[in-house]
Amino acid sequence: MAEKNGFTVKVYRNIMSSHGRWTKKIRELLSAHNTVMVNIIGSPGSGKTALLEALLPHFMRKKNVSCLRGCETDRDARDSRQKTFRRTDRHAGACHLSAQTICNVLQELDLSGLDFVFVENVGTWSAGGI
Is the dihedral of CA 115, 94, 83, 105 positive or negative? Predict the structure, then answer.
């Protein structure tokens, strides 16, 4: 129960509890493989793809990198035909990548020897301590 400004709110269940379980699994999976995940979140057209296109060539010189994409705009589709990121460039098939979706994709990847996973995400998904 929480009280603020004279109002009392009863909390019956934590709707983020499932999210917390998935983020814990993600942290454990990444930690077991000594892999760092960078989750880039923004609205469509905010520059996530441009940022990755600028950063990834520098990372890929010395590091093994994977990229997981959410929504794919027309520009992204055009650019991804011209450029591929080393190791894995996965399109997850949804704009908003939930912690469960990310965890499922990570479990499919061979994380051994993978230094970084960049997640290009749309929406309000909070990293939740990942």
Answer: positive
Distance of CA 51 to the CA centre of its chain: 15
Contacts 24+ apart (CB under 8 A), 32-37: 32/111, 33/111, 33/112, 33/114, 35/111, 35/114, 35/115, 35/116, 35/117, 36/115, 36/116, 36/117, 37/102, 37/116, 37/117, 37/118, 37/119, 37/130
**pTM of the entire structure?**
0.71
Secondary structure (3-state) at 20? helix
Round to whole Å and give the CA distance between 16 and 86. Answer: 34
Rounded to whole angstroms, the Cα distance separating 68 from 118 reads 6
| Domains in the chain, CATH or no CATH each | 16-121 (3.40.50.300)
Q: Which one, of 5, 25, 40, lies nearest residue 107 by Cα?
A: 25
Q: Rounded CA gap, 29 and 26, in Å?
A: 5
pLDDT, tens digit, 9 for 90 and up, residues 94-123:
567 788 888 988 998 889 888 999 988 876
